[in-house]
Structures are given as structure tokens and as C-alpha cells.
Amino acid sequence: MSGGDDVIIGRSESLKRSNLVAILWDIHDRTASNILALRQFVKTHMASDQKEIVIIGGGIIGCTSAYFLTRHPTYDPSKHKITLLEASKIAGGASGKAGGLLALWAYPTNIVPLSYRLHAQLAKEHDGQSRWGYRRIHCGQLAAKGRPKEKKEPLEGKPSNGESVSLNKRDGKALGKVTAAGLPKDLNWFAPESVRSYYEMGDPDTTAQVHPYQFTTVMAELAAQKGVNVILGSVTSIDTTNGSGVKSVTYEDKATKTSHTISATDVIVSAGPWTQRVYPPAPISGMRAHSVTITPSKPISAYAIFTEISLPPDFGNKDTFLKSKRAHQKTVTPEIYARPNNEAYACGEGDHLVPLPKTTEDVETDLARCQDIIDYVSSVSDELRDGEVTVRQACYLPNVEAVSGGPLIGPTGVKGLLLAAGHTCWGIQNGPGTGKLISEFVFDGKAKSASIGSLDPRKVL
Question: Residue 450 pLDDT more than 80?
């Protein structure tokens, strides 16, 4: 036996947990064949520790997956390479344009508690209150009668000298109506004559919120600080070596338009509504949704409100914004979320009128639909009617086209290929939980933090 062979045997001490290594270490007859076998085992064992992880999609699911992969106890940047591929920009889709509501009463129930708890932990660890607007809030269902549209006048009671004078609209009679409807005293930004009823859905113990764009981008930043390489590029193919296992991912660089192929041992497809474009077997579709943000005429209290507004018969007939007369439903249901820093977010119902575009940068915003949302919320709130509209936007929400619903989280049946998509409107809420579970699938081989058998992609692929 040569000195080099002695070194190889000596170094195998750390591998004695393996039966094969233990046998080769203990036997007296250390023949050349045994030494070669040991060499091959050490080489294979060391190779199995190396991981080249590719995450496809820079939305909330991809960014939280990157974050939790770098926080897993097994993660070692010297042995584990993580690449996050995003076609346009981080949080460019629904993850940057959603409402950001968090709730223990969300769905699916098998991951909601985990994710809600992780949101609180992340906010505590990384100062989420100031970095992404994390706070506990109230949430309720409000039934109201919309008022006819009227010309927008200067802010109420504001003379030319800048002095603010209250018009005392909330007199005793008005407050009596609000009290009878069950409206909380601090929910004072709805017109008393419009309110019909109020039902509380959640309180600060069960409901919270974040600013989606801020939360998602911070998750990406924190992951990058731990070694994740973020690349802007569109994935063109995933090489699965005829279905036996992932081998590489090919993408087109956004800036240079050049094609690159990177090796991969693990691939997480988390491209939201674009998931099927990347991995065709995935039963994921997209639904367009519009939203707006408004700076209210005065600060509004921390509530997320699901409305049911009955519109007057002639609502919208005197529209002057787009010079058109649009048809409106008799009852509309915009959602309104009060955010920190005196911002209100409002969104309307979804549509399938425009097919999913190539990237988030190509999403078409229908200004008429945005105006509908503005008109609806203005019909029940002076603070929103008299406020300043700051953003009109659209995005696509990912839906699972299967009876079981979604999301789909876990192995696909192809070795090393994981799916994490189809979170509908609860992607922000369930992002941390999904990211945590994906890190466990990659490093532990199974989900440990929650029982998610019902979300197994292999059931629908």
C-alpha cells in the first residue's frame, strides 16, 4: 500500500457512518480492489453533497424558497449553489401588485398556520414593520348602497388659505345609522348613509398585512446576501434527461439576449401563472386582475374590507373619465385594504379577456376597469373619492386547473424537479410556508413542517 493510499484511507474516517466504509476500514486485507472501491465511494458520497439548485420565478414563492433554502441547517454555500431566474424583474407580477392580506382563516388550511406564523417571525427578525409594512389589522365584510357618481370637488371644508374646516357630516343621526349597522367606531371612512351592515371576519389576532412588493424584494435581497445568485433571464428549457432526472436549465439573458445553460441537481418551478410555459404538464392557468392605490383625503384606520355594494340604476351614465358608458353589475364587490403611510389599495374582480402575455412587463392594463374600481369605492367613501389615485395596474393570478384545487407543492415525479405554484390570491399569505416546505424537500427529501399530501403535484400531473 502506498502512502497516498494511506491518506485516502485515513480521510475516510469521517465517512465511517457508512456500512461500506466501515467494512473497508475494519477488514485486515486492504487489497487494491478494496482501496479502489473506497475511492469510488468517497467520490460518490462527496458528489452527493453538492447541489446546484435553480429556482424559476422571482415572485413571492421563488423568493421565499430562496430565502428558506439559505436558512436551512444543511445549507453550505461552499457546496450548495442556488440560482434564482426571473424573466423580467423581482416581484414584477402579482407578488408586487397584490393586496398583501394575511389571515389564519385563509386556505388551504394545512399550510396557512405555518405560513402565518412565519410571517410574524420574519417581521420580528428583519424589522418587517418598517421594511415591508407588516402589521396586525381588522378585517370585515361591509354591505353598502353606492351613491351616484358626482363631480370631484376640492377636499371638503378646505378654504383657499389652507385651513381645514370640518363639515360635521357625522352628526347624531348619521352616527346612529352606523351604530345600527354594527360598524366599529374607528372604521369611520365610509359614508354613513351608504352603510347597511358590517360583519367582522378577523381581528388582529388572526389577520395581518404586508406590502407585497416590499416584502418580496426584501426576501430576495436577504437570500442574495446568503449567496443566492439572482439572474434576469427567461427560461427556455429544462433538461430532464428523458424524464429520469433534472440535468440543466437553459435561459435567455434579459439584457444580452444570449442563451446560457446551467447545471442543476434540483429545479423548483415557481413561475406563478407562467408555470405551464416553463413546465407544460403543470395544470396552471392565469386570471387577470386589476387594482389601484389611492392616497385618501385623510388618514384611514387599519382595516381590510370586503365590500358588497349595490349600485344605483343610472350609475356610470355620466362618466367623463373615458368618454364612454360602461355597463355595470347591480352589485359589485371590490376589496379595500388600508395600508400604512396613508395608502389604500383596492381591487376588483378578475377576467380572462386577454391571454397571458410573455412576461410581467407585457401585462396589459385596462384603464376602464381600473376606473370602475375607483368609482365603486368612491361611491361609499368620501375619503377615497376625494383622495389621489396614485397607481392603476393589472397582474395575473395563478390558478390550478384541477378538481383538487391548489396550490401544488412538492415533487413532480421527475427526480430533482419540484413544483410550487397555483396559490391563487393567497400567494403572499402562503409564501413563507411554501418556501419553508420547499427547503425541506430539497435538503431533507420530504416536508417536515406541515402535512401537505393533498397538495402533492403528482396527483394531478
Answer: yes
Q: Look up residue 127 and give its amino acid.
A: D
Radius of gyration of the chain (CA): 27
Q: What is the pLDDT of residue 31?
A: 61
List b or e across 38-49, with b for residues whose CB sees 16 or more CB atoms inside 10 angstroms.
beebbeeeeeee
Q: pTM score, two decimals?
A: 0.85
If you write DSSP's letter for every residue of 74-120 in order, what string do you get? Answer: T--TTTEEEEEEESS-TT-SHHHHS--EEETT-S-TTTHHHHHHHHH
> How distant, in Å, are the alpha carbons of 37, 40, 89 from that of 5?
12, 13, 52
**Residue pLDDT, tens place only, 11-53:** 333 333 444 444 444 444 556 556 555 455 444 444 568 999 9
C-alpha cell at 205: 389576532
* Residues 75 and 69: beta-carbon distance below 8 Å: yes
The 10s digit of each residue's pLDDT in 127-143 is: 999 999 999 999 999 99
Phi-psi sector, 158: left (phi>0), alpha (psi -120 to 50), beta: beta
Ordered strands of the 101-103 beta sheet:
101-103, 207-209, 135-136
